[in-house]
C-alpha cells in the first residue's frame, strides 16, 4: 500500500534518512549549516516519500504565517471555480489557504472571525452579501479584499471583472443577431447585480433601444420564474439576458418545458462562464470571467500589502487589468471578461 502523504512528516523523513529532525528541517528549508551532499540525500528521501511542507508549520517560526483566509459560499459553481483559482495562485506565490464556508448554520461573519482567530494574515471574501461595515468589523485589523464585488468601505481592496464593458458587449452581440427586444433578468440582492443592471440599461439606451429589467436573483429558480412570468403576462421577448449562468440555465429549462425553441424563438445568454455552459445540451452564450487572472491579482496584491517574500512575483499579470483608487480608500482592480458565443444566441 502506498504511504499516505498526510502521514509523511519531517520526523518520517528523518527516520528514513538516518538524520536528526533538526538537520532534516534545515535541509528542507534551505537553511545554512547542512553539507551539500547531505542536503541532496535528504531532499531525495523526502521526494520518494512524497513529503509536502505544510504552510501552517511556519506559524511558530516565521514572522508571517503564510496563510490567506477565504470566505465563500459552497453552493455556487462559480465560487467553487474561484476557490480553485485561489489555491493555484496561493501556491504560485508561496502561500497557503484557510477556508471558511458560509452555510445556513454557519454565518459569513463568524467564518471570517474564525479565519482571523486561526492567524490568517489577510482575508479574501468571495461574492459576499454582507454590508461592508460588517465585513470590516469581522476582519478587524486584518487586510481585507473583496472578490467579484466593489468595495465602499475604508481601506478595503477589491478585484472584479469589468462588468460594465462585459454587459455592453453582450447587449451589442445580441443586437447584432437582429434581435431588438431584449429583457434583462437582474441579480436581486447578489453582488454586482446593480452594476450589471445599470450597464444593461445604459447599453440599450445608447443604442436607441427600450430597456426592460425583470427582478431576479442568482439561481436556477429565478430563471424559471422569470420565463413563467413573462410568458403568462404578455409574451416572451426575442432575447433574455440573465444576471448569471445559473439563472440562464433555469430559463433554458423552463423555455424547453414550454416548448419554446432556443434560439429560434427566444435567445438566451448568461454571465460567468461556468463549465456547464459548454455542454452540448446547454450550449449557452455567456461572458466568461477570467478566474485565473482575478485570483492571481487578488493574491499578488495582498502579498504585496503584507510585505511578504513572493516567489511568484515574476509571473505575468493578465493583460488589460486596470487599477483604480476607491473613494473610501483601498484599490479596485478590474479584469476583462471574454464573450463566448454559442448556439443559444445563434442567428436564425
Model description:
- The protein contains 11 helices and 13 strands.
- By secondary structure, the protein is an alpha/beta fold.
- Strands 2-1-3-4-5-12-11 form a 7-stranded mixed beta sheet, with helices on both faces. It has a 6-stranded mixed beta sheet with strand order 7-6-8-9-10-13, sandwiched between helices.
- A hairpin with a 5-residue loop joins strand 11 and strand 12.
- Helix 9 crosses helix 10.
- The longest helix has 16 residues.
- The chain is elongated.
- The termini are far apart.
- The N terminus is likely disordered.
Instruction: Please count the beta strands (DSSP E, at least 2 residues each).
Output: 13
Termini separation comes to: 59 Å
Stretches where pLDDT falls below 50 for ≥5 residues? 1-6, 58-62
Describe the largest sheet: 7 strands, mixed
> Number of helical segments?
11
Category by helix and strand content: alpha/beta
Calculate Rg over CA atoms.
24 Å
Give me the side-by-side strand order of the main sheet. Answer: 2-1-3-4-5-12-11
- Indicate the mean pLDDT: 90
**Percent range for β-strand residues:** 15-25%
Order of helices and strands: HHHEHEHEHEEHEHEHEHEEHEEE
Estimate the helix proportion, in percent: 25-40%
So what's the overall shape?
A: elongated
Amino acid at each position: 500500500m502506498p504511504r499516505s502523504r498526510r502521514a509523511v512528516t519531517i520526523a518520517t523523513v528523518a527516520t528514513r534518512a538516518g538524520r536528526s529532525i533538526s538537520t532534516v528541517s534545515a535541509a528542507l528549508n534551505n537553511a545554512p549549516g547542512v553539507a551539500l551532499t547531505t542536503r541532496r540525500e535528504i531532499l531525495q528521501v523526502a521526494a520518494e516519500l512524497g513529503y509536502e511542507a505544510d504552510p501552517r508549520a511556519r506559524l511558530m517560526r516565521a514572522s508571517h504565517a503564510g496563510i490567506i483566509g477565504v470566505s465563500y459560499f459552497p453552493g455556487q459553481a462559480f465560487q467553487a471555480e474561484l476557490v480553485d483559482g485561489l489555491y493555484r495562485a496561493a501556491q504560485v506565490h508561496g502561500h497557503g489557504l484557510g477556508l471558511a464556508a458560509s452555510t445556513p448554520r454557519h454565518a459569513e461573519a463568524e467564518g471570517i472571525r474564525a479565519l482571523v482567530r486561526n492567524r490568517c494574515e489577510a482575508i479574501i471574501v468571495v461574492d459576499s452579501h454582507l454590508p461592508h461595515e460588517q465585513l470590516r468589523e469581522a476582519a478587524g485589523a486584518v487586510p481585507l479584499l473583496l472578490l467579484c464585488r466593489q468595495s465602499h468601505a475604508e481601506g478595503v481592496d477589491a478585484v472584479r471583472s469589468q462588468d460594465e464593458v462585459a454587459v455592453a458587449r453582450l447587449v451589442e452581440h445580441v443586437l447584432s443577431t437582429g434581435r431588438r427586444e431584449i429583457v434583462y433578468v437582474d441579480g436581486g440582492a447578489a453582488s454586482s447585480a446593480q452594476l450589471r443592471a445599470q450597464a444593461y440599461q445604459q447599453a440599450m439606451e445608447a443604442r436607441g433601444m427600450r430597456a426592460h429589467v425583470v427582478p431576479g436573483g442568482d439561481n436556477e429558480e429565478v430563471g424559471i420564474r422569470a420565463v413563467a412570468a413573462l410568458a403568462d403576462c404578455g409574451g416572451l421577448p426575442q432575447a433574455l439576458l440573465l444576471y448569471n449562468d445559473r439563472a440562464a440555465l433555469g430559463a433554458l429549462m423552463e423555455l424547453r418545458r414550454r416548448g419554446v425553441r432556443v434560439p429560434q424563438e427566444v435567445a438566451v445568454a448568461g454571465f460567468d462562464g461556468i463549465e456547464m455552459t459548454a455542454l452540448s445540451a446547454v450550449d449557452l452564450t455567456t461572458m466568461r470571467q477570467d478566474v485565473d487572472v482575478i485570483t492571481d491579482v487578488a493574491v499578488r496584491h495582498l502579498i504585496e500589502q503584507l510585505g511578504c517574500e513572493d516567489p511568484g512575483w515574476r509571473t505575468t499579470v493578465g493583460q488589460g487589468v486596470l487599477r483604480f483608487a476607491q473613494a473610501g480608500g483601498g484599490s479596485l482592480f478590474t479584469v476583462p471578461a471574454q464573450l463566448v458565443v454559442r448556439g443559444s444566441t445563434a442567428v436564425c
